[in-house]
Every structure is written in C-alpha cells, then in structure tokens.
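Bumping my old thread because nobody answered last time. Still need a sequence for this structure:
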C-alpha cells in the first residue's frame, strides 16, 4: 500500500482534523444513518480546506483518471480520481472518520446476516482490499457546471465494499451555484422508491449508505437498496469531494 509523502501533505491545509472528527455527535450520526440511510455532518471541512481542495481540480499530476460522465451515460459533468499518495487532508479525513463508522458498518452487517466485519483501522481494511486486487484509490473530486447532473448510482468497485461513504460540499449554494441538490433514493421490497433531498452548505458532509442498509420490519430485519445522485445544476459551478473507503479493482 502506498502511503502519503511529505510533498502530498502540503497540497491542502490540515487543521486539527482528528480532534474535529472526535467532536462530532456520533450518536446523532448513527441514529440518522439508521433511520434514513444518511446523516449530515456540519462543518466537516473548514472554509480554507474547501478552497484548497477545489483548487486541486486543475492539476493533473495528483489524479489517476478523469471521467466525463456523458460518455458513459452517468449524467453530465466530470470527476477525477486521486492517485496515491492522496492529498494530506483527504488522508486525514478518511483515516479519522473511518473508525467512527466501523461500529455502524459492523452492526448493519450483523443485522443483515452478512458475515463480513470491518477492522478498526483503515490501513487494515485497505490491506484487505489490496490483497484482493483492489489497488486503485477511490477518493475523487467532482465538478458540475450549468446543466450538469449525476444519475442515481452506487459506488461499488470490487468484492470488498465499506457500506458507508462521505461526500463533502466544497462550494456554497446560492453564491457559487444553484440547483445541484444531493439526492438519495431508497427502494424497499414491494414498495415505491423513497427520495431524500439532503441540504448542505459549504464544508458540510453527508455520510450515506453505499449499497444497502438494514430496516426493522414487522417480520424482522430486511435490506433496502439505496442509490445517490445530484440534481441538475441551474447556474454556477458545484464542486465536491467523495471519500470512499474501499479501493477499486
């Protein structure tokens, strides 16, 4: 596994990330994820971090690939996958928040009768991915302009999937862009899909289910399937960072 170098740590500022993550209301995040499949984390990234991360988009040397969504029917807009070593702030946020999500992920798998359990440290989970041939980093930087949107989808990249991921909004709604709401849909068996529109401000993050989550029904626990996307951008430019914890084949 590649690790960050001193050069990568200088790409974006890091400000007491572990302390900030530890101050989040873990019970509220857990309850919201259980109830709706998503949880807003206000102030996940500072204004300085948002601006520094947004400026990275013009660089080519720190990304492994660029995807123009219209070419693949994914929507409109584009995104770039970071290469290893990741920018310092991405590494810090990814490493710091992962242990807070592990108990939820393990509890979900137990409830759904899935045998997989996740280790306490991200490095151990990434090692598991790499041993299975999932070697490519998945954190990404996304950019949308007027008319762009992201179709409902799931970020599944191989056998090993961490069931929760994070998206951070780097732009300010109403100032930098209009439209572009984060949308989550949930399909329960024999029921119509339930939509969830998640309001975010600059620096806020949303933690959400990657694939499915457990729901308590009258006859026990069952799985519901989730997809996420972004509604049409009406004006301006919207940038986000996606923090996915499993690497890709």
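Sorry it took so long. Here it is:
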């Amino acid at each position: 596994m590649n690790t960050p170098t001193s050069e990568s740590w200088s790409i974006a500022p890091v400000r007491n990330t572990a302390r900030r993550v530890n101050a989040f209301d873990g019970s509220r995040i857990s309850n919201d994820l259980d109830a709706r499949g998503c949880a807003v984390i206000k102030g996940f990234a500072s204004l300085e971090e948002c601006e520094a991360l947004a400026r990275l988009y013009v660089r080519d040397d720190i990304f492994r690939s660029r995807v123009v969504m219209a070419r693949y029917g994914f929507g409109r807009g584009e995104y770039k996958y970071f290469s290893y070593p990741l920018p310092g702030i991405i590494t810090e946020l990814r490493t710091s928040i992962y242990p807070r999500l592990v108990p939820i992920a393990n509890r979900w798998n137990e409830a759904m009768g899935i045998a997989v359990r996740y280790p306490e440290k991200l490095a151990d989970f990434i090692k598991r991915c790499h041993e299975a041939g999932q070697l490519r980093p998945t954190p990404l930087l996304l950019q949308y302009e007027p008319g762009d949107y992201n179709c409902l989808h799931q970020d599944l990249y191989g056998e090993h999937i961490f069931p929760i991921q994070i998206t951070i909004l780097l732009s300010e709604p109403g100032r930098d862009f209009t439209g572009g709401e984060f949308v989550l849909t949930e399909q329960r068996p024999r029921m119509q899909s339930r939509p969830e529109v998640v309001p975010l401000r600059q620096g806020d993050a949303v933690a959400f289910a990657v694939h499915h989550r457990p729901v308590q029904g009258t006859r026990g626990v069952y799985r519901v399937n989730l997809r996420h996307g972004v509604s049409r951008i009406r004006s301006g430019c919207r940038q986000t960072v996606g923090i996915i914890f499993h690497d890709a084949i």
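Residues 88-111 form the longest helix (24 residues). Let me know if any region looks off to you.
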